[in-house]
Amino acid sequence: MKIKEYRTQFIQELTPIYDAGEAESFFYLILEEKNQLKRIDLALHPDLVFSEGEIVIWNSILEQLKKEIPIQYLLGKTSFYGLDFEVNENVLIPRPETEELVEWIIESQKSKVKSQNIRILDIGTGSGCIAISLAKNLSNAQVFAIDVSKNALATSQKNAENNSVNVTFIHQNILETEDLQQQFDIIVSNPPYVRNLEKDEIKKNVLDNEPHLALFVADDDALIFYKKIAELAQQHLSENGQLFFEINQYLGKEMIDLLEKMNFKIIELRKDIYGNDRMLSCHCEER
Ligand code: GLN
């Protein structure tokens, strides 16, 4: 079968679920990953065909897409901050909002002296996207990353190797951590922050496929991780150190109250590309 004909059929079958542009972009992503062909190859060689074996593989991917399994899991990878990351059902698919958080952290370091080494801790690293992109872009940083899930850490470890960066991964439950052992210049976290009451807002493909451990907080206590991390930061943030959080869009004010009560000084509450309160940075007062 001609690839061009298969493309038409593929897009048609997906359009009840995805818009045509999205379905088309899925087609080319899979074409590149599975057949090492780009859009231009198809334009230059309109007679290219899929073998029967290739059609079997494509049909199986198509069926999974129809079940709304995220394309990133089907391809086993995604891109974040210009780097490739392996992803699977043990880790959240990195979000563009989180790229904005990484951008903010990198930007915050621009004015600082490069010769001085800094220590960064990423709490709840998942795929490792924050820790690894910071390690890649901040050459003076020594990066540490914690996760409660051993399976997630196996993935983040591999991602660090694939991106040729050195990150120290630690298997630890932050809620049970009393002492971080050392001081950090930056502590960053994108912890679970979705409450059960917000479950209806989460898209079906996210809900059915992504790890709930990374998304939801128990008992609707959406601040539990932030409170614990802020407590640890009171002891383990170095002088002039900064705390960066990705947050629940509905809890910007609550986050500010919590942190100010704990003697942190808010640097900024930032919105994401969608216009939602999504990121916050603060530092310890009177240091
Ligand atoms: N922003 C993510 C979502 O919408 C949630 C990420 C998180 O809980 N840390 O699915």
Automatic annotation (TrEMBL):
Pfam assignment, any one: MTS
EC number(s) from the headed UniProt entry: 2.1.1.297
Binding positions for substrate per the UniProt entry: N190, P191, P192, Y193
Annotated residues for binding of S-adenosyl-L-methionine: G124, T125, G126, S127, G128, D147, N190
GO terms, biological process: methylation
Catalytic activity: L-glutaminyl-[peptide chain release factor] + S-adenosyl-L-methionine = N(5)-methyl-L-glutaminyl-[peptide chain release factor] + S-adenosyl-L-homocysteine + H(+)
Alphabetized GO MF terms: nucleic acid binding; peptide chain release factor N(5)-glutamine methyltransferase activity
UniProt xrefs under CDD domains: AdoMet_MTases
UniProt domain Release factor glutamine methyltransferase N-terminal: residue ranges: 11-76
Domain Methyltransferase small, residue spans: 116-205
Keyword Methyltransferase belongs to the record: yes
This protein's UniProt keywords: Methyltransferase, S-adenosyl-L-methionine, Transferase
InterPro entries in the cross-refs: DNA_methylase_N6_adenine_CS, HemK-like, N5-glutamine_MTase, PrmC_N, RF_methyltr_PrmC, SAM-dependent_MTases_sf, Small_mtfrase_dom
Family: Belongs to the protein N5-glutamine methyltransferase family. PrmC subfamily.
Purpose of the protein: Methylates the class 1 translation termination release factors RF1/PrfA and RF2/PrfB on the glutamine residue of the universally conserved GGQ motif.
Protein's UniProt name: Release factor glutamine methyltransferase
Organism of this sequence: Flavobacterium glaciei
Gene that encodes it: prmC
